[in-house]
Amino acid sequence: MKKIFILLALILVFSAVAYAQSVSTWRWIIESKAMVLGPITNSKINKTVALENNSYGYQVIGTLTDNDYKPAYSVYMAGDPVIFNYLKAGDVVDIFLVSTGGRVARLTAPPFIWYGKSGDNNSGGYVEAAYYLYQIHVNGKIISGNLNIVR
User: Fold this and answer.
1) Would you list the domain boundaries of the chain?
2) What dotted CATH number matches 66-150?
3) How many helices and strands in the chain, by DSSP H and E?
4) How far is CA 108 from CA 21, 25, 38, 102, 114, in A?
5) For residue 123, how many other CB atoms are within 10 A of its CB?
6) Contact 63, 44 (CB under 8 A)
7) Where does the pLDDT of residue 29 fall: very low under 50, low under 70, confident under 90, or very high at 90 and above?
8) What is the pLDDT of residues 36-83, one digit of tens each?
């Protein structure tokens, strides 16, 4: 009975390893020890995302593309959070109203979440329902996109 249990455990471990190797990211499979994962970090040097693991240091889990920094959707209700991903101190997001061309908002500090408010870091009142452009200043380049605020 014990041999069957050990055999089943080995099959399970090898199946998990095969699955982990079939996906496009690195994964650590540890059966006897729970991993405590720390914060996600963004390396500006080689554009990789890593998880800080208390036992094993950094593990690369993928390479960032321009789209990774952009919000998930292009249409938001007024007041809904527009989340700009993987940005940290020193990065900037500018938001412009298309009809006037003027900047209505600027995000300069983490967390980079816009709640549809004017001014720096959501300090003003809610903006009008309209079509907006944004520019993400990250890693020495500018990534542009658009979004709609609806009521």
Assistant:
1) 2-63, 66-150
2) 2.60.40
3) 2, 11
4) 38, 31, 24, 17, 11
5) 10
6) no
7) very low
8) 344 445 554 445 555 544 444 555 567 889 999 999 999 999 899 999
